[in-house]
Amino acid sequence: MAAVEIPRDEQAFLEYVQAGGQVETTDWLPEDYRRKLIKFIEMHGNSELMGVLPEREWILRAPTLQRKLALTAKVQDEVGHAQLIYRVVEDLGKPREQCLADLVDGKAKFHNVFHYPTKTWGDVGVIAWLVDAAAIISQKALLKCSYAPYARIMKKICWEESFHILHGRDVILALVTGTPEQFELVQEAVNRWWGPLMQFHGNPIPKEEDPMFQWRIKSQGNEEARQQFLEGYVPQILELGLTVPDPKLRRGDDGVWQYSEPDWDELMHVVTGHGPQTEERLALRRRFLEQEQWVRDIVLVA
Amino acid sequence: MNELLLALADDELVVGWRDSEWTGIAPVLEEDVAFSSIAQNEIGHARAVYELLTDDADALAFDRALDEYRCAPFVELRLLDWAHAIARRWLYEVADEIRIAGLMQDGDPKVAGLAAKINREEAYHRIHAEMWRDLLGETPQFRAAVEELWPYALGMLPVEQREALAARVGRAQVDAVERATHTDELAELWNEMTIVRRSAPAGAQW
Amino acid sequence: MIWEIFRQERKGQPFEHAGSVNAPDAEFAEAWAREQYGRRGESVALWLAPREEIRVVDDWADEFELKYRRVDGYSIKARLKEARERAAARAR
Questions:
Q1: What is the torsional sign of CA A117, A120, A124, A130?
Q2: What's the CATH superfamily of C2-53?
């Protein structure tokens, strides 16, 4: 059969991907598509790598051997995801070393939630249960990405996330059925993480105005993702006797969730590198990258 | 026998805890993933040995007083630079292989059986350690690290096993840092390791 | 050096491309591939090859569209319908 010819003009390419067509690394890509793709995927890789830092402190403090093993395995998966993602970016033309340099120099972004501190074991549960859930919704939508190499790694990523969700739920359930103090740990963490969670999927630009959707890099609009999160997880939160710190949060008769306007200024402020933990975490990354540059120089010489 | 097993378990717990400190910050992402598996395996070994000694492995792992732990100073050291971390990995595996070989001959079939299981898993650890030693072995950083850690590595094994270790590592024996006293680093580690656990009454679920 | 990794999920399944690692030699490539594609028991076997050893073929000539040798080169619906109708008529 004659090979599918990827059209070499931007309009035809747009029609091709909007009709569900996928492209590979060696296909012709419009410049705008390539640039936006690299930026999007790089931000994902950065997020996986930075997401490790708030969680790894708690590996060292895990209160049972089982929790320690599970949390180590979860964080290990996230590092593994970063590896998969940066390889995709590298094959698109931007080397990993450059991505890491841009990250620690504050020139590249990562998701808002990873700029915030973790304060208690309650955060460990809430991150694995709710923050990961928000991320997984976006990740499932990426399974249909028009750029096939990225869509393919998303399959492995989504598969690995399945135990993360269970682990998160298990941690939360142990706490909410434990002592009153342990229940409070969860409630307090939910209160603190709610704001960033509501901002996570980004402000609700209509799909038609979102270039990431136009290029079918994302197959879901921001608001659609947030609604999916609320629909799936608010009932889970409420059924445990926990409350959500938003008096306006309710599900309308039409099935659409209403909520207080998230703080979009906070989101912009945080993702441009001004989150409470941004500097400290980037400094940690920078410190270890510099300290072990000599190792990479030997490992990557071949 | 209990003392020997407890020492093995405590060594594996603490070295696994130390190795897990690299999760997320190892020099190469692929290695980060591999190193984390090794750390998990070590903690898994600790748990399996504790379970030979008690019904409540968590209590044994976390709830003892500092001076009741039987780990060697070698594993207590906080080594947050790669040359030292990988040098310890290598020395630890060589020493542990000698120790485990002894336990595989144990009269108690449960002990011998568990030692054989651990030994099979450690085969991959040894390959990994040798791989890094081949790559970094001649670097000044690695050589300096081995030099510094050698007395500690010797102290990990009972006196009668140290000649074998020296032969395999290719170094002459020196005065060993014995198991007798714990380092300050263990206290720091124990504090962090138990901070969440101690925040709830004994027997609380997590 | 980039090493491509192919994984087999279960015995009898085909080996599928799973990803790649940047490793200095075969030993490192193997150790790292084992971890990325086997630590959760998701593969029973792996094949590894340096990327530069893999020959890519992705262009084809089919100028004369020789459809006789492909399934889509045959359209039997209409003729089958007629053959069945004729057989039914003969049977009456």
A1: negative
A2: Phenylacetic acid degradation B (3.10.20.520)
Q: For the segment A39-95, what is each residue's pLDDT rounded down to a tens digit? A: 999 999 999 999 999 999 999 999 999 999 999 999 999 999 999 999 999 999 999
Burial grade of A6 (CB within 10 A; 0-12, 13-18, 19 or more)? middle
Nearest to B24 among A53, A171, A298 (CB): A53
Fold for domain B2-199?
A: Ferritin (1.20.1260)
Would you say B35 and B125 are in contact if contact means Cβ atoms under 8 Å apart?
A: no
Q: Architecture of domain A22-299 in CATH? A: Up-down Bundle (1.20)
C32: chain B residues, CB-CB within 8 Å = 30-31, 33-34
Average pLDDT, chain A: 94
In chain A, what residues touch C23 (CB-CB under 8 Å)?
299, 302
Of the partner residues B23, B81, B204, the one whose CB lies closest to the CB of residue A76:
B23
Instruction: Provide, rounded to the nearest whole percent, the portion of chain A with pLDDT above 70.
Output: 97
> Which residues of B fall within a CB distance of 8 Å from A121?
196, 199, 206
Give B49-101 pLDDT, tens digit per residue.
Answer: 999 999 999 999 999 999 999 999 999 999 999 999 999 999 999 999 999 99
C36 contacts B33? CB cut-off 8 A: yes
From B82's Cα to the closest Cα of chain A, the distance in A is 7
Contact flag B31-C27 (C-beta cutoff 8 Å): no
- The answer to whether A284 and A290 are in contact (CB under 8 A) is no
CA distance B129 to chain A (A): 15
In this complex, do C39 and B31 lie within 8 Å of one another by their Cβ atoms?
no
How far apart are the C-alpha atoms of A121 and A144, rounded to whole Å? 35
Q: What is the pTM assigned to this prediction?
A: 0.93
A145 closest CA partner among A21, A36, A38? A21
ipTM of the modeled complex: 0.95
Are C35 and B131 a contacting pair at CB < 8 A?
A: no
d(CA A163, CA A169): 10
Beta bridge partners of residue C47, listed in sequence order: C6
Beta carbons within 10 angstroms of residue A12's beta carbon: 12
Domain boundaries, given as residue ranges, for chain A? 22-299
Interchain CB contact of A92 with C (< 8 Å): no
Distance CA A157, CA C18 (A): 12
Q: Which residue of A has its CA nearest to C66?
A: A1
